[in-house]
Amino acid sequence: MSEATHRPRQPHHFIDADAGPVVRPYAMTRGRTNSTSQHRLDLIALVVPEPEADHTDHDQSLSPEHVEIVERCEDAPQSIAELAAGLDLPVGVVRVLVGDLVDDALVHVTRPVPPAELPDVNILREVINGLRAL
């Protein structure tokens, strides 16, 4: 018999002993890579909690990550990028989780104004020059 067959197995081997077991991102989203939400969740889209989201910490259907997203947005709206950085999760995972919250009417997402809809810089300069001339 080889030495490998008699060697006791280590219960868990972690690169960082303080980290403990790691939950994979696909486990948080139940294997989904997109949400069913029809909203386009840009990196700079702002997540704003709905009034119904006041008691999400008691909702057993929500994951801890869902609850934390709502809590982080209570004081001030947070962008998808800010949430991903603050939660230390991939952006794709945060998009799916926020999409779930949108579907449950616990948050809404405000999209930034597309650059094509912003006023032309030259027009703004002409308006400013006209105001200065008054």
Fold and architecture overview:
The protein is mainly alpha-helical and about 130 residues long. The chain is built from 6 helices and 3 strands; from the N terminus they run ααβαβααβα. The protein has helices at about 5, 25-30, 65-75, 80-85, 90-105, 120-134, and strands at about 45-50, 80, 105-110. It has a 3-stranded antiparallel β-sheet. The chain starts with a helix and ends with a helix. The relative contact order is 0.17. The mean pLDDT is about 75.
Largest sheet descriptor:
3 strands, antiparallel
Strand line-up across the major sheet:
2-1-3
Spell out the helices and strands N to C.
Answer: HHEHEHHEH
Helix percentage range: 40-55%
Low-confidence stretches: none
Taking the alpha carbons of the first and last residues, their distance comes to 96 Å
Mean pLDDT: 77
Q: Determine the structural class based on helices, strands and strand pairing.
A: mainly alpha
Q: What does the radius of gyration come to?
A: 23 Å
